[in-house]
């Protein structure tokens, strides 16, 4: 290893690198998170230093540091406050509150205060939609923000009180489980799933998952047993043997996807807060079935506050023989779980981007085939499943497939956990058997005069009041869990507008149609919002939406136009009311584009303006 | 022959170099054939200052200042068909090279620091067109019906384009006539 | 019996492991592409090579060919969509062809000619991008970079140097250079590197060679790229 040019930085970095893999480049993202915490940005000197520690090029490290929105290549304030920018936060007054807060602290959004004390900005949905408006301060979640709380927070910042010493009530995050079902309502005995599996055998347990007809809860609804079987097949092809009931193989992996970045989704947060054992147990069952020795929980950066409690659960499970070597005394059954934190990138919920991120790289979706089940983490067979999928798997292992399949509909067995937010009296977590209608849900959560529901988030489906009879099920309305309710008086354009900003901000930038298309879509929506839209702009939105939907590389781009296209179809009025009657309006604000020249020349005559 | 109503064409140069107009003259003796069927309204060639109702308007150059917008809008209002001719009208072209330079810096450099002008004043005469932050192609300001790229488009390209247009065909350039440089 | 796929009704054979693009190139069938160069690992980012396979849009450069595949390539719909992609590439950068040394030899421009692009159509972003003239022999102008990562791949996989990388995200993605100053002149880059000669656009230019071939006599001035690419020379190498 080359000597580091910056000894003082080296001293500070060495413990961080030591904590995370000791020089293993797959830990780069974890290291950079700590570097960011320590210096409030990633200093160029640190990049050089880490390059020699990890045997990577500077460009590779800069590439990772520049990709994740919680990492920053330029200095941020000692206190970095990021307001959640989901439409539900906005409906609860986020824009005004953020402005209020900025005024109080004499700082402009997106900038660092002159004394480097504070920087304030927006961030994509932080998953606190049922207790918004929400924000993050140096990564820790703040909920239920109002002017009083912001007064207190700005005071704490002004007196430079360390975040760790702030009053706990500011950070209170509630589960808000309003309607428990078989996952959330029935007691779960730790180890029950694993015990039942060991008694039955791994292959028979895979059968049970198959009989249960469990489908992935992360959105796509892929049949879980098939995914596990494909992983089998990939391994069998490589190793020419059956792998069930063999000892853990260090060369295959099981990953729990807790990136939960879809705006309006927060059910995985609750599962990990209060039902983590069930989730880890599901992973352990899955690990036994595919013969994995190691598992990862990829936890979105927004949920870093859960890291410690989750580590504690893992330790307890190790102590109780539910993780580690020879689990529950079964010789050769070894499996353990490591938690990796994300750093602000929705795309890392896409399974192949997630794997790249786990390897410490930029989160960009891979080319498929090969799929992760054949070549995933470090090029080895890997199963990636959603948090809730694993929770279901634990229950199925415990109680059997038939029990599970008795709930729900033919193609959508079991229950679905919904995270409900927006215009309703009782936001929070609701667990329903599949097949429930939108109408029933709205009644339960106390949504009166609802006009529309965004099911499964921006990438999902906008359901108008005419369709409230539709059902939550893969056959009709598939969902990863988001359920955002909009009242009759809401302007649906605002939601679509907000979502276009979300996608433009979260596009990974790998492929042309999405990198540029999401940006075009956002700019056209801005133009309409500013009162300069014309019917031609609507046609352009449809055209860009078509390119996004057909040409993009991954699911993000494929769905990025859904909110605009759905809203255009189902609520055309919300657009039309905003349009100018003219058939053409300039692409930019003509008069505004003369402002600099007016400032320079001091002119304000008629010819210095354009209408 | 004289009963046939001639197609009325207007042209102008906004933020351009007149290169496209030179190229228009480059169609050489075919210009006479053209004049059989068209008459020119406002153009730099006729010195008519304002555009009256026309069949075709041909614009060279992008939009770099407020005056360009007035002229462009007058053309759009008066012309049934509007054509963007040349790289500048279509992408901003060479004048758009200033788009990455801050307007403040531009002014300072030109009026304050340029040799011989040290300590000079930034002019503020209302007669002078006020510049935009950036140079834009004309289609970002008005609706444009046809595009004829090239810097400048060759005489042949212009000829092919116009003969197609006048014959009521969808203008289509041959491979070697389609150029951005 | 050899395995075959059909592209626009024409049967072509392929060997196991080839992509649709490999098979097409071998059979001298042109599928538009920008980020693909057969010398390097397929990347799949520009999406120009999008074709339809059984009604599904896939990238020809990364999709493995499989026996009996029916591929649609030269259709009006696909060409319209590809033109839109090229237009997106034009407006997201600063492509002022009249000022560019690559004009006439540029693959982005050539593909645009082939697709009959008369205008970039979308509103220009005119992003501020950095120019780097620090290297004695090579000029890096990010205004023209289309993020194809060919230079990244060439430097990493052929030159073994890792001179280039991508940073930023989304529309903020940008090419970065592996040196403490971030400048090409301070990196290990050499004009003899393979990476110096793979850029499909005018983003990486070798100094002191400007206009040695005059505008008007360049590769794509008289011959469309679809013809150039199917007449023997493999993609990418056009010096
Ligand atoms: C842009 C994008 C974001 C995604 N985000 C998530 C996520 O946050 N959580 C998740 O479980 N799946 C997410 N997915 C789906 C995953 O790619 C993958 O299908 C899922 O984790 C598989 O697990 P399952 O079969 O249990 O649903 C996302 C997909 C895309 C395209
Ligand atoms: S669709 Fe968007 S998020 Fe997906 S690879 Fe392309 S740019 Fe990245
Ligand atoms: S790189 Fe190609 S498209 Fe871009 S300016 Fe140069 S010649 Fe034109
Ligand atoms: S510099 Fe050239 S080769 Fe490198 S990414 Fe940009 S366009 Fe591609
Ligand atoms: S004036 Fe004709 S191309 Fe610029
Ligand atoms: S050539 Fe296939 S995606 Fe670029």
Describe what this molecule looks like in 3D.
The complex is a heterotrimer of chains A (611), B (181) and C (239). Chain A has 611 residues and is α/β, with parallel strands linked by helices. Chain A folds into five domains: 7-67; 79-159, Glutaredoxin, CATH 3.40.30.10; 180-405, NADH-ubiquinone oxidoreductase 51kDa subunit (Rossmann fold, 3-Layer(aba) Sandwich), CATH 3.40.50; 415-489, Ubiquitin-like (UB roll) (Roll), CATH 3.10.20; 491-611, NADH-ubiquinone oxidoreductase 51kDa subunit, iron-sulphur binding domain (de novo design (two linked rop proteins)). Chain A has helices spanning 7-19, 28-39, 44-54, 58-65, 87-91, 94-105, 147-158, 192-200, 202-212, 224-239, 267-274, 276-290, 307-319, 351-358, 387-399, 401-405, 438-444, 492-506, 512-529, 535-551, 555-559, 562-570, 572-576, 595-601, and strands at 79-84, 118-123, 135-137, 140-142, 177-179, 249-258, 292-299, 336-341, 382-386, 415-422, 428-433, 450-455, 461-464, 482-487. In chain A, the strands form three sheets. A six-stranded mixed sheet of chain A has the order 5-11-10-14-12-13. In chain A, strands 2-1-3-4 form a four-stranded mixed sheet, covered by helices on one side. In chain A, α1 (7-19) crosses α3 (44-54) and α3 packs across α4. A five-stranded parallel sheet of chain B has the order 2-1-3-5-7, with helices on both faces. Chain C is an alpha+beta fold and 239 residues long. Chain C has helices at residues 20-26, 76-92, 107-114, 150-158, 219-222, 225-230; strands at 3-7, 10-14, 50-53, 56-59, 70-72, 131-132, 138-141, 164-167, 174-177, 204-206. In chain C, a hairpin with a 6-residue loop joins β8 and β9. One FE2/S2 (inorganic) cluster is lined by residues 16-17, 19-20, 60-61, 86-88, 93-94, 151-152 of chain B.
